[in-house]
Amino acid sequence: MTSANAPLLPKLIGERVKRREDPRLIRGLATYVDDLKLPGMLHLAFRRADIAHGVIRRIDVSAAAAMEGVELALTGAELAEHLGPMPIGTPFPAPDHYSVAVDRVRYVGEPVAVVAAADRYLARDAADAIEVEYDELPAVVDPEAAMADGSATLHEGFARNVAVGGYQGGTGVNAETAQAEDDSAMDAAFAEADVVISQCMLNQRLAPNAMEPRGVVARYEAGSDYLTIWSATQNPHILRTLAAGMLGLGEHQVRAIAPEVGGGFGCKINIYGEEYAAAALSRLTGAPVKWIEDRTEAFLATTHGRDILGDVEIAAKRDGTILALRAQLLADIGAYEVLLTALIPTLTGMMMNGVYRIPVVRHELTEVFTNKTPTDAYRGAGRPEGLYFVERAVDMLARELDMDPAELRRRNFIPAAEFPFPTQSGLVYDSGDYEAALDTALAAADWESLKAERDAARAEGRIVGVGMAFYVEVCGLGPSSVVPTGGWEHSGVTIERGGKVTATTGASPHGQGNETTFAQMLADHFSVPIGDIAILHGDTGVVKQGIGTFGSRSQAVGGAALMLAAGRAGDKMKRFAAALMADHEASPDDLVFESGRIQVAGAPEVSRSFAEVADFAYVPVPLPAGLEPGLSEEAFFEPENNTYPFGCHISMVEIDRDTGEPRLLRLIAVDDCGNVINPLIVEGQVHGGLAQGIGQAMFEEVVYDEDGQPLTASFMDYVMPRAADLPAFELERTVTPTPVNPLGAKGVGEAGTIGSSPCVVNAAVDALAPFGVRHVDMPLRPERLWRLIHDRDQNGGQP
Amino acid sequence: MIPTAFRYRRAGSVAEALALLREGGPGAKLLAGGHSLIPMMKQRLAEPELLIDIGGLLELCGVHAVGDAIEVGATTTHADLAASALLRERAPILAEAAAEIGDAQVRNRGTIGGSLAHADPGADLPAVLIALDAAISITGADGSRTVPAADFFRDILTVDLEDGEILTDVSFRPVRSAAYAKLPQRASRFALAGVAVALEMEDGVCRAARVAVTGAASHAQRLPAVESALVGARLPEGAAAACEGAGDALDFVNADLHGSEEYRRAMVAVMARRAVESAAARG
């Protein structure tokens, strides 16, 4: 048989291949943590603080421990004999933080005791039977008041509740000390300015709300001193490292497994106290233990996102030239620092250049503790906050100058010819063509018609506005110099006997679709059917090394590692093939993969089947000189830089004059994530991101009362966007490849979230501009908007 | 989200349900759609010892024309109300209001009897049934009785229903010129302010009106001032004037992060006007 008779396999990269993951997910055939049932398994329940701040005066677990079916009940102090303070992944100083509170509670939902029982119901009953008394302390709720004289403090050694104080970056700042040394450029820019825009804005606190809450199963086998821990985590390898450290084990004694994971959005990067506690209780009881978070716990005890105040000033010339931007950032990080808590707001500071060639940019960041759930990454993690502040301020400048917001942005863009572009904030943007994205968006939206439509609606008495926002973000994290966990990714590619392909990746997906995109890439590389390829992930016993999935890095870093390993395996395979075709004096360098065969380029009649060569590699008789048997290669990939995807979003918003209810009429999104493997998956990521960004703009907010009691601890009060709240999204793409990885892919997981929030708020402010409104904080609560409209109406038309 | 232990019994008839209620005493609770009760049990806000499931009782289910009245059984789901051709034809307000309740899952499980008996301050149907001047039928060990809907709702989560009694059906004379308008709380979809209006119109002039509000106050109740302002008004032109200040007459108005007292009072007027306009448009 010659390949001339065999059908050619179509190339899959760039094709809309349906997700291979979906049939099992849709049909309920996937295995999540809660689906695991081990013999003799116990169930954990945590007793949690119902006050925001207090000293534990008395805690008594004896009634719980005495209940039938209860194996073990421990206070935080008792558990602390087995588990020390939890590690974090940032260089900032942090107070001790135990899995279960030892002597004091600092947020509603903080664990104070843990119970292991025969079933989940008994465990919960027993947790309720624990007696706890507190000496209440004043709750610290407002981040500005937290720093005032006389405020209660959360942690010894952190005066005025300051976790990170006065951390500066940008023009005239010494990067080593994070302190400003030279104000001359900033002073000159503001002295020269014709116009200064100044606005304080809140990027509010959000609950990540993954569809699957957290969950863990831990099994400690005393006979072999070996811990296996299953967890709904984004990064099983980091879990292995940290769990080993907490339990006094080596990494060779721990296997961490992320089975199917139902969404993370950043909140499953952190390794939580419940995971360590489960491991410790398995060791103490000698039984496997399971803990599944309920939705109430997910609102209280899973990390929140965002919550940062930005006081932003822009200095500009009358012609729209932006001279300088400075920002005071105040992050409310909640009660403790967890894995990346203190790092996230620093990313906000780094993004204050936006997409603009602003010659002078500076931020000063302070992070404070309050009696709220700790914050950590949430989809976009620092970048949406920064871009929101910049894009709101730029929009205000356009309004002040009475200039089209598109034109103002165009005048200040970093030109395409100037990449790689070092920003004042210390980043080096890899590549970009912002004007192309803007032009694509303006055309897709028919911007001039959209504005005319708005004006016509206004003439009818409707309250309608249009808005735009541009964004750039940091993706593809690494390199290791900027990622505390290491910024590389690992992959293994094995060509099995029979010619099937098994690949492993440390980029542990929880909705990203790697099983599809990675298989597309290998199918093209080896020219084999996609069904012959398995992508394994999420198990440190199977995937030798890895970092995990966050910061839109799967494709840009994980995909690059995959192709490095595939290249090595393919090269070796060609050497085996060349040996089989020795009669034809084929050189490995002349061989190509084509539709299930390995053939001489340009001479397809000289070929061997992929399967035959694979079989030969495992039974190599005779063994070709210089080759080891087998076809299993691996690779680490470390990018030289981050990637910087960008895009332009445009929206139209209408506000009900009577009720203040906002409605999103249009959302046009142009996203540039570099080269695209699978447009279907990219669009899906953009859709989800848009929904979450719109959710922040319009609906979502975690609210606490003055005593630190959460008012939004269920879906009855926390407003999630629903399908009916969203218009049919209009998506376009431009393609500007990145030079920092061989794929040219930048990452897209967070993109939609970043552009949409400022875009929608800009449209709402445009709608309200006739009422004299310059800014409105998120979310766009109907009452908030109604007041802005109504107050003006009450004043005879005056703002 | 883990309830305390409870026993579960499925009643085969209303009589058996009554017997089980007697046996279970104060710890017994009726279960139909369960879409209010079960979330409360999961939060341990309700800890019944015995659940008596009446959800499957066909004798309590359905929308029927009885003489010139319409009777709706207590276990009729919101989805069934929304889909009822009889209601769409003769009392569209009830079908339309039911179609706006919660989400599809809630409408497929939740029942009219459950909504009325539970009396969430933001529930939609109480206002609709007050506007329709419905009679609520209740059966207990000592026999049956009926209560006008306007008297049934007493306070927050409090109705004229004793332990051991079962709400069996509601009955009303259908009104076409009736409509319901609500401002939904954006998370729960309960009414922040909802107003139901039933009109008697003659040549574009309102001859009689029944107006009820839900969501804004502790419980659904009539708005007598709006009712009298509507009588004699030419509609829809006079709707705004008649409804102005509709929310100001309420003694007590809820306030939370979704809406202050001032906002809710204002929204009662807006929803009243919208409901009157829609009802009047039906002639």
Features:
heterodimer, A: 799 residues, alpha+beta, Aldehyde Oxidoreductase, domain 3, Aldehyde Oxidoreductase, domain 4, five-stranded mixed beta sheet, B: 283 residues, 3 domains, globular
CATH domain fold name of the largest domain in chain B: Uridine Diphospho-n-acetylenolpyruvylglucosamine Reductase, domain 3
SS field, number of helical segments of chain B: 12
Q: Count all strands of chain B and give the number.
A: 14
Q: Bin the helical content of chain B.
A: 25-40%
End-to-end separation of chain B: 48 Å
Please estimate the helix content of chain A. Answer: 25-40%
Low-confidence stretches of chain B: none
Largest sheet of chain B: 5 strands, antiparallel
Return the CATH architecture of the largest domain in chain B: 2-Layer Sandwich
Q: What oligomeric state do the depicted chains represent?
A: heterodimer
Q: How many distinct folded domains of chain B?
A: 3
Distance between the termini of chain A: 82 Å
Structural class of chain B: alpha+beta
Percent of residues in beta strands of chain B: 25-35%
In what order do the strands lie side by side in the largest sheet of chain A? 3-5-1-14-11-12-13
Query: What is the radius of gyration of chain A?
Result: 28 Å
What global shape of chain B is seen? globular
Description:
The complex is a heterodimer of chains A (799) and B (283). The model of chain A has no long low-confidence stretch (mean pLDDT 96). Chain A has three domains: 3-29 and 481-637, Aldehyde Oxidoreductase, domain 4, CATH 3.30.365; 39-139 and 209-301, Aldehyde Oxidoreductase, domain 3 (Alpha-Beta Complex); 384-475 and 642-794, Aldehyde Oxidoreductase, domain 4, CATH 3.30.365. In chain A, the strands form eight sheets. A seven-stranded mixed β-sheet of chain A has the order 3-5-1-14-11-12-13. Chain A has a five-stranded mixed β-sheet with strand order 7-17-16-15-10. Helix content of chain A is 29%, strand content 24%. With 799 residues, chain A is α+β, with helices and mostly antiparallel strands. In chain A, α16 crosses α17. In chain A, β29 (662-672), α18 and β30 (730-733) form a beta-alpha-beta unit. Chain B is of the alpha+beta class and 283 residues long. Chain B folds into three domains: 7-53, Uridine Diphospho-n-acetylenolpyruvylglucosamine Reductase, domain 2 (2-Layer Sandwich), CATH 3.30.43; 58-172, Uridine Diphospho-n-acetylenolpyruvylglucosamine Reductase, domain 3 (2-Layer Sandwich); 178-281, Enolase-like, domain 1 (2-Layer Sandwich), CATH 3.30.390. Chain B contains twelve helices and 14 strands. Chain B has helices at residues 14-24, 37-42, 78-83, 85-90, 92-99, 104-109, 112-118, 125-131, 149-152, 224-230, 239-243, 261-281; strands at 7-10, 28-31, 50-53, 63-66, 69-73, 135-140, 143-148, 153-155, 158-159, 166-172, 178-184, 191-202, 205-214, 221-222. In chain B, the strands form four sheets. Chain B has a five-stranded antiparallel β-sheet with strand order 4-5-10-6-7. In chain B, strands 11-12-13-14 form a four-stranded antiparallel β-sheet, with helices on both faces. A three-stranded parallel β-sheet of chain B has the order 1-3-2, with helices on one face. Chain B is globular, with a radius of gyration of 19 Å. Chain B starts with 6 loop residues before the first strand and ends with a helix. The chains are: A alpha+beta (799), B alpha+beta (283). The A-B interface holds A 45, 120-121, 124-125, 128, 294-296, 658-659, 661, 699, 703, 711-712, 714-720, 722, 781-783, 786-787, 790 and B 1-5, 43-44, 103, 183, 186-188, 256-260, 263, 266-267, 270, 274.
